[in-house]
Write a structure and sequence with these properties.
Distance between the termini: 24 Å
Order of helices and strands: EHEEH
Oligomer: single chain
Radius of gyration: 12 Å
Helix content: 25-40%
Strand content: 15-25%
Number of strands: 3
Strand order of the largest sheet: 1-2-3
Number of domains: 1
Structural class: alpha/beta
CATH superfamily: NAD(P)-binding Rossmann-like Domain
Length: 75
Amino acid sequence: MSKKKTYFITGGAGFIGSNYIHYLFEKYDDVKVINLDKLTYAGNPANLDDLKNNPDYIFVKGDICDAEVVGEIFQ
Protein backbone atom coordinates (compact mmCIF):
# COMPACT_ATOMS: atom_id res chain seq x y z
CA MET A 1 0.00 0.00 0.00
CA SER A 2 1.49 3.32 -1.04
CA LYS A 3 1.05 6.58 0.80
CA LYS A 4 -1.12 9.15 -0.96
CA LYS A 5 0.62 12.21 -2.32
CA THR A 6 -1.00 15.42 -1.06
CA TYR A 7 -1.36 18.43 -3.33
CA PHE A 8 -1.98 21.90 -1.88
CA ILE A 9 -3.77 23.94 -4.56
CA THR A 10 -4.50 27.64 -4.19
CA GLY A 11 -7.30 29.13 -6.27
CA GLY A 12 -8.71 25.71 -7.03
CA ALA A 13 -12.27 26.96 -7.54
CA GLY A 14 -11.25 29.00 -10.57
CA PHE A 15 -11.14 27.74 -14.14
CA ILE A 16 -7.51 26.62 -14.24
CA GLY A 17 -7.39 25.36 -10.65
CA SER A 18 -10.57 23.31 -10.87
CA ASN A 19 -9.48 21.71 -14.13
CA TYR A 20 -6.10 20.87 -12.62
CA ILE A 21 -7.78 19.27 -9.60
CA HIS A 22 -10.00 17.17 -11.88
CA TYR A 23 -6.91 16.19 -13.88
CA LEU A 24 -5.12 15.00 -10.73
CA PHE A 25 -8.02 12.79 -9.68
CA GLU A 26 -8.47 11.38 -13.19
CA LYS A 27 -4.77 10.66 -13.75
CA TYR A 28 -3.75 9.34 -10.32
CA ASP A 29 -5.37 6.95 -7.85
CA ASP A 30 -3.21 7.84 -4.89
CA VAL A 31 -3.73 11.59 -4.44
CA LYS A 32 -5.27 13.84 -1.84
CA VAL A 33 -6.06 17.47 -2.68
CA ILE A 34 -6.35 20.41 -0.30
CA ASN A 35 -7.89 23.37 -2.11
CA LEU A 36 -7.50 26.83 -0.55
CA ASP A 37 -9.59 29.46 -2.29
CA LYS A 38 -10.72 32.92 -1.25
CA LEU A 39 -13.74 32.64 -3.58
CA THR A 40 -13.42 36.04 -5.18
CA TYR A 41 -15.03 36.94 -8.51
CA ALA A 42 -13.12 34.18 -10.33
CA GLY A 43 -13.85 31.34 -7.92
CA ASN A 44 -16.86 29.14 -8.55
CA PRO A 45 -17.32 26.30 -6.05
CA ALA A 46 -19.79 24.65 -8.44
CA ASN A 47 -16.77 23.76 -10.61
CA LEU A 48 -15.95 21.12 -7.98
CA ASP A 49 -19.42 19.97 -6.89
CA ASP A 50 -18.68 16.45 -8.10
CA LEU A 51 -15.84 16.16 -5.55
CA LYS A 52 -17.66 17.30 -2.41
CA ASN A 53 -18.23 13.69 -1.25
CA ASN A 54 -14.70 12.58 -2.11
CA PRO A 55 -12.80 11.91 1.15
CA ASP A 56 -9.53 12.76 -0.62
CA TYR A 57 -10.69 16.30 -1.45
CA ILE A 58 -10.67 19.06 1.16
CA PHE A 59 -11.91 22.59 0.48
CA VAL A 60 -10.81 25.47 2.70
CA LYS A 61 -12.24 28.95 2.17
CA GLY A 62 -9.47 31.39 2.94
CA ASP A 63 -6.75 33.71 1.76
CA ILE A 64 -3.22 32.47 1.05
CA CYS A 65 -1.99 35.70 2.72
CA ASP A 66 -3.63 34.68 6.02
CA ALA A 67 -0.82 32.95 7.91
CA GLU A 68 -3.21 31.60 10.56
CA VAL A 69 -5.40 29.81 8.00
CA VAL A 70 -2.42 28.41 6.12
CA GLY A 71 -0.78 27.35 9.38
CA GLU A 72 -3.88 25.40 10.42
CA ILE A 73 -3.87 23.53 7.12
CA PHE A 74 -0.29 22.36 7.64
CA GLN A 75 -0.65 21.30 11.29
